[in-house]
Write a structure and sequence with these properties.
Helices cover about 65% and strands about 0% of the residues. The protein has about 220 residues and is an all-alpha fold. The chain has two domains: about 50 residues, Arc Repressor Mutant, subunit A (Orthogonal Bundle); about 150 residues. The radius of gyration is 20 Å and the shape is elongated.
């Protein structure tokens, strides 16, 4: 990913972090396409629009870097859970991979920053879905490892049918994240108001598990 050069000193890192933080907050609030470079630099109280380009090659490069930060954070959490799952010796099933993929949705936002990360993720995913097409974006190495397990566990199917199921699984997860956003935006002290309940997550896992259980053909294809 292209990055602006910028100074490497402590002040430069503070400015870079301030630009990223301001941009993330504005993107989460307004959407990616409704925030200008001028808006971002104004939020950090600088009149020089060129200051953003000093640290980032472009607005899109800034967006991609924030997306990478979020994906890296999720990858760490998912990798730890996947490591534990693989280390305990218990059989790995489609269900356990489903639960691994969506388990972090049950984690309540710890603070306004984690809630903001979720809001930004949804705004970025809706506006720039291409950023999430690489195996690195949905969850880094842990995502690729999860797909590897699904390939081993799923019934035999054509590559295009496998890809179709992955797209459907991500759509299910994306919809559930959007529902979680309602809770994240409020940071309500009473989590039963808007929290994704265990029952909701169970039903989502049921849907994902059913998606992989059979070898039915994808859209536009017919059974043999």
């Amino acid at each position: 990913m292209a990055r602006g050069v910028g100074p490497r000193g402590e002040k430069g890192e503070r400015t870079r972090a301030a630009l990223k933080s301001a941009a993330k907050e504005l993107f989460a609030e307004r959407g990616l396409d409704k925030v200008s470079v001028r808006d971002i630099v104004a939020a950090v109280e600088t009149r020089n629009e060129g200051s953003l380009y000093y640290y980032f090659a472009s607005k899109d490069a800034l967006i991609e870097e924030i997306v990478d930060d979020f994906a890296h954070e999720r990858d760490i959490v998912r990798s730890r859970r996947l490591d534990a799952l693989e280390a305990n010796g218990a059989p790995i099933t489609i269900r356990t991979i489903c639960e691994l993929s969506v388990g972090w949705l049950m984690d309540p936002p710890q603070d306004s920053e984690s809630a903001l990360n979720i809001q930004f993720f949804l705004a970025a995913e809706r506006a720039h879905r291409a950023l999430f097409t690489d195996t690195g974006k949905p969850g880094g190495g842990s995502w690729a490892r999860s797909l590897g397990h699904l390939r081993d566990l799923a019934p035999p199917m054509a590559p295009e049918d496998f890809d179709f199921r992955v797209a459907c699984m991500r759509a299910i997860i994306r919809d559930t994240i959007a529902r979680r956003e309602t809770w994240a935006r409020r940071l309500d002290p009473h989590p039963e108001q808007g929290e994704l309940s265990p029952e909701t997550v169970r039903l989502m896992c049921d849907a994902i598990e059913a998606l992989w259980a059979g070898a039915a053909p994808g859209p536009g294809r017919t059974s043999a």
